[in-house]
Amino acid sequence: MSDKKFVILGQEIKKGESAILEVEVAKLHTRNSLSMPVIVERAKLDGPVLLLMGGVHGDETNGVAIVRDIIRKGIHKPKRGTVICIPVFNVFGYLNQRREFPDGRDLNRMFPGDAKGSLAGQFAHKFAKEIAPLADYILDFHTGGASRDNYPNVRVVMSQEKNLELAKVFGAPFIVNSKYIAKSIRDLLNKIGKTVLLFEGGKSLALDDFVIKTGVDGTLNVMRHLKMQSGKVKTRNKPVIIKKSKWIRAPYSGLFQSLVKNGSKVTKKTVIGRISDPYGEFEKEIRAPFDCYIFGLNTAPIVYKGGALYHVSAE
Ligand SMILES: [Zn+2]
After folding, report:
1. Which of 243, 266, 284, 291 is the 20 to 30 Å CA partner of 224?
2. Is the dihedral of CA 192, 169, 41, 216 positive or negative?
């Protein structure tokens, strides 16, 4: 963006300025109103606009903590360009410590929204109209749903080279090919020509230091790559690229114990878990059906037959 005015939510932010804005989410039936804070930092020098979002699903606390740490460390103050931080996107869900909006809807299936639609639809519409068009790059931080624990990974459509390049720069241990889900934020942002990375790490209602650090370091890498922060991009190891993935499902119902760590590589026929009954009579092994990396793990103690246990690479 050159000398164009930068106006967000009706407020102009000049070069070198910062602001904390509030988006009204809803007037509650208790007469309280609920708003979503948006933190904007604009450098004196022109550059890209980066949007960082956590808590699209209200129970995905790692994402909230990643954006918080980026702010706490001052990484969100760019050397050039603009950073927009939304640490808690779904304020409603976050208050309730639930994935959904209070009307029961998954906010991440509501885009581009509708000004006259449901509560979640109206909120999605406001975002789609007033915030999304301003961003060039978006990092959207998620965790596994329910009891599913994700080893830190970045999801992109690999045929989109710009996205894949940025995912490599981010430097999470895994890059997972993942198509756009209709009406998700990622789908909306892609349709309006934005470059978006979806980060997945850890599980809901948990804080994982390794996941949070991976998210913060990855963001700093992206900002360095875009010349929004000084310094060199630092990635630990080459990320493992997963073009196709699959779930290994429970062959029986019962108590589930994993015998392998999330993030590990296993060879075909390795015993990776056990399912047993509570009486010490029934016990079955789960073996890896092929050589694979495990990047998602169900941490539920009790599983049903057919339930997703391990998210793995598949060729
Ligand atoms: Zn999520």
Report:
1. 243
2. positive
